[in-house]
Design a protein that fits this description.
The complex is a heterodimer of chains A (388) and B (424). Chain A has 388 residues and is mainly alpha-helical. Chain A has a domain of 241 residues. Chain A contains 15 helices and no strands. In chain A, helix 8 packs antiparallel against helix 13. The radius of gyration of chain A is 22 Å and the shape is globular. The relative contact order of chain A is 0.18. Chain B has two domains: 112 residues, no CATH class; 282 residues, Orthogonal Bundle (ABC transporter involved in vitamin B12 uptake, BtuC), CATH 1.10.3470. Chain B is built from 18 helices and five strands. In chain B, helix 2 runs antiparallel to helix 3. The chains are: A mainly alpha (388), B mainly alpha (424). At the A-B interface, helix 6, helix 7, helix 12 and helix 14 of A face helix 8, helix 16 and helix 18 of B.
Chain lengths: 388, 424
């Protein structure tokens, strides 16, 4: 009973925040639908139409994320094809989310997951299509390169902060743009062009560097999800069971006290940003080696922002981050089906994500809306200024 | 130089010393990179005339090697002048300005070898590209000087662009678009204010979320309404430029500053008002007090949170108006994510300009000019990849915050929520 109550209080806030976001977005779907707006003359039909429009869109979202009855006809399990897509979408989200969550716990705000992800993708892609190695070793080499590239890119931010006090938020925002332009430039250079082509798309990585599929060739779900889950377990162990993790959390909780206790704050800052970078870079590697195979100008996608929302929804906790990433991975996969089947633009997913985080970050608002008195408050993130 | 002398230098003096060293190095770099290394030489031509303004010089042609050499030497002389001014403990502003122009001209002579560069057009385009940056940076000044971090500049610009584009299209009147834009920006700022001040949420996260909310909403509505019903929803008119009598005829300066749309003229007014207001008025004093030391401000009867609330909303309105530049001020219809990170460059300009209005304007002008130069050079074709020129503002900002050109310091209480009765 006590366990049950604890579980409810942990998921109550994220759950209510998610429901509120779905509700507001549902209104958006309904009231931007021209067919619904035409019914405005009769209130009953209008409300019915609004519900129908939002309902259809969300049904398509579900079908695209978990189970599609239309695919289940000859073979029932084929209906779960969307679930595989959800796991594919969730893998890089888990890794980038962990990157942001780890930094949060050490009192750092890693907005640079985007740039680190891009450098990871570049590293994985270069090793993947440029070199020839035996199966197995090739994948590992690509992943390690990705993590080193991104780790250096992230660690550089930590080093700047440690040495000069430059705020990591400003530096990472700027570095994200630098990384995007660097990627654009790289894709216009000869080694990254496909033979006889001028468009910004690198050659695909070789078969030997691709992550193996887990459930047959028809389902795209691959080793990436296992890597992501293992990384989550690793980060959990690092934070909760290791000495270094204790130091990270000590610096995050109170840097001045940590310094007094003999912890080297500059070292922790640099190390945390390097590890966070490596995690985001691993996300980039999983994306390239697991599902995309080719590096494109849009490789960074919206991963930087998604990572922040995932980490916040997961309360900067590795296990929470995994669940949050699965949820948003589902939204991402389902959003494509929703767009195809009901003409509801996939950009709605961004709105849902933004609203979820807004509600999560303001527990006072959710409490006021749902008139709940007892609710665990606190987003796991402390408010700090530029000089903090 | 002995240790004592080093210690006796004040912070601005140390910054000046670093500037002098940097200018010397860059001056020599210009000499080597634009004169000694390049072997080819051709005529570089600069155009000065845009329209029917009074003409001083029509165009000016020079052998690229001679030009590069001449201006590189001028840059080095400026660096030497700066050194003497530094030794005499004077400011080095004039020397820096001469250096900047000479370095740029040395570079342009090299880059435009055998080509034509419309110099007035280059400067005018630079000012235009700086317009949204200046509006965004002014919004940043108001927000952050009063103590609220504004990462949501991008979202406020985009909201302004969307609202003004759509409303101008629906009514086919530009002035309605112009009128509605500040309200759209203020609406986003209202959310920022409520969540940051009332709910005390981390303002960096909040700003980020608001950006994505606006991007998501405008993308959604763009695909849902603006594309399918383009003729009614997304075919807005554009503002026409207004020539200021007499002034627009001044050679070079006229077409750049006085042949613009009302959005640009409003920008001049806003910049002057904010600069004067911030340092010379009760409003500005209260704003700075709330941003630097809220407890002290509260103790002399200033309502810190109300001050912050009002300034954040005002800032949003300014950014929203700046957003109108993208639609009715430039192209007319709204485009998906058409602000394209300009809000973040505005943030960069704010930081690069050390949270001061004129500093931010200078930084925005430099960034806008660099952006336009990049565009012009990629058309006439040069050796530098355009992506690297596009990176420049971001790299410059990182260099600024790492303290290479002097320590950049934000208002002391910027981003720290204030609760009455809790001392900071």
């Amino acid at each position: 009973m006590k366990f049950f109550r604890k579980a409810v209080s942990t998921i109550a806030l994220p759950g209510l925040a998610f429901l509120s976001a779905l509700f507001v977005s549902g209104l958006l779907i309904a009231f931007s639908d021209p067919k619904v707006l035409k019914l405005a003359h009769s209130p009953f039909k209008f409300i019915g139409g609004a519900f129908a429009a939002a309902g259809k869109a969300y049904l398509a979202l579900f079908e695209g994320a978990i189970f599609d009855p239309n695919l289940a006809h000859p073979n029932f399990f084929d209906g779960f094809y969307p679930l595989s897509e959800t796991l594919v979408a969730a893998s890089p989200l888990i890794l980038t989310g962990l990157s942001v969550a780890l930094a949060f716990r050490a009192g750092l705000f890693n907005i640079g997951a985007q740039g680190q992800f891009i450098f990871g993708a570049i590293g994985a892609s270069v090793v993947g299509f440029k070199t020839t190695m035996p199966v197995g070793i090739h994948v590992i080499a690509a992943i390690v390169t990705a993590m080193v590239f991104a780790g250096l890119w992230g660690g550089f931010v930590g080093l700047l902060k440690a040495k000069t006090g430059a705020h990591e938020v400003i530096v990472t925002i700027m570095l994200n743009y630098v990384a995007s332009y660097f990627l654009l430039w790289l894709l216009s250079t000869t080694p990254f062009l496909r033979k006889g082509r001028q468009d910004p798309i690198a050659p695909p990585v070789k078969e030997s560097a691709r992550l193996p599929h887990l459930a047959g060739p028809n389902l795209r779900v691959n080793l990436g999800i296992i890597i992501a889950l293992a990384a989550a377990a690793g980060v959990w162990w690092l934070l909760n069971r290791s000495t270094w993790g204790f130091r990270f959390r000590a610096v995050g909780a109170n840097a001045a006290a940590a310094r007094t206790a003999g912890i080297s704050v500059p070292l922790v800052t640099t190390l945390v940003m390097a590890i966070a970078g490596a995690l985001a870079g691993l996300g980039g590697a999983v994306q390239i080696l697991g599902s995309e195979y080719a590096l494109t100008a849009g490789a960074g996608g919206t991963f930087g922002f998604d990572a922040i929302t995932v980490a916040l929804l997961g309360r900067a906790n590795p296990i929470g981050t995994v669940f949050a990433a699965l949820l948003f991975g589902g939204l991402r996969a389902g959003g494509l089906t929703m767009q195809a089947n009901t003409d509801t633009p996939i950009d709605l997913i961004l709105v849902i994500q933004a609203l979820v985080v807004l509600f999560i970050a303001a527990p006072a608002l959710v409490k006021a809306v749902f008139r709940i008195k007892q609710l665990k408050v606190g987003s796991g993130v402390v408010s700090k200024g530029w000089n903090g | 130089m002995t240790q004592v002398e080093v210690l006796s230098l004040s912070a601005p003096e140390r910054r000046r010393r670093r500037m002098v060293v940097m200018m010397g190095v860059l001056g020599v770099f210009a000499l080597v990179a634009f004169f000694i290394i390049p072997k080819q030489h051709d005529k570089a031509t600069f155009g000065f005339v845009m329209d029917k303004e009074w003409v001083a010089v029509h165009e000016w042609a020079i052998n690229s090697r001679h030009g590069s050499l001449g201006f590189a030497i001028l840059a080095i002389l400026a660096a030497i002048l700066a050194y003497f001014q530094f030794r005499a403990r004077k400011t080095i502003r004039i020397a820096s300005a001469i250096f900047g122009v000479s370095f740029l001209m040395s570079f342009l002579c090299w880059a435009a070898s055998g080509k034509f560069i419309p110099l007035t057009g280059l400067l005018q385009g630079g000012l235009l590209l700086a317009v949204p940056l200046i509006y965004g940076a002014m919004a940043g000044v108001l927000c952050e000087r009063s103590g609220v971090i504004n990462i949501a500049i991008e979202g406020q610009l985009l909201a302004g662009a969307f609202a003004s584009g759509v409303l101008a299209s629906l009514t086919q009147k530009t002035w309605i678009g112009l009128l509605i834009a500040p309200f759209a920006g203020a609406l986003i700022a209202y959310l920022l204010a409520v969540f940051a001040i009332k709910f005390a949420i981390d303002q960096v996260i909040l700003g980020f979320v608001l950006n994505v909310l606006v991007i998501g909403l405008t993308d959604f509505l763009y695909k849902r309404l603006l594309i399918p019903y383009q003729t009614t929803w997304n075919s807005g008119p554009i503002l026409s430029p207004i020539k200021i009598p007499v002034l627009w005829k001044i050679p070079i300066l006229g077409p750049i500053f006085f042949d613009q749309t009302i959005i640009v003229y409003l920008m001049y007014a806003i910049v002057i008002l904010i600069h004067v207001g911030l340092f010379r008025s009760k409003w500005g004093l209260r704003m700075r007090a709330a941003g630097e030391h809220p407890t002290a401000a509260e103790s002399v009867g200033i309502n810190v949170n109300r001050t912050r609330f009002r300034n954040v909303i005002l800032a949003g309105a300014i950014a929203g108006l700046g957003g109108a530049y993208f639609t009715i001020g430039a192209v007319g219809p709204f485009g998906k994510e058409m602000t394209a990170g300009k809000g973040f460059i505005a943030l960069a300009a704010l930081i690069f300009g050390r949270w001061s209005p004129l500093g931010a304007v200078s930084a925005a002008l430099i960034f806008g000019f660099a952006d336009n130069l990049q565009g012009v050079l990629s058309i006439i074709g040069t050796a530098i990849p355009s992506e690297f020129m596009l990176m420049a503002p971001y790299v410059a900002t990182i260099i600024a915050v790492t303290g290479f050109v002097g320590r950049v310091r934000a208002p002391a209480a910027d981003g720290v929520p204030y609760k009455r009765g809790e001392s900071v």
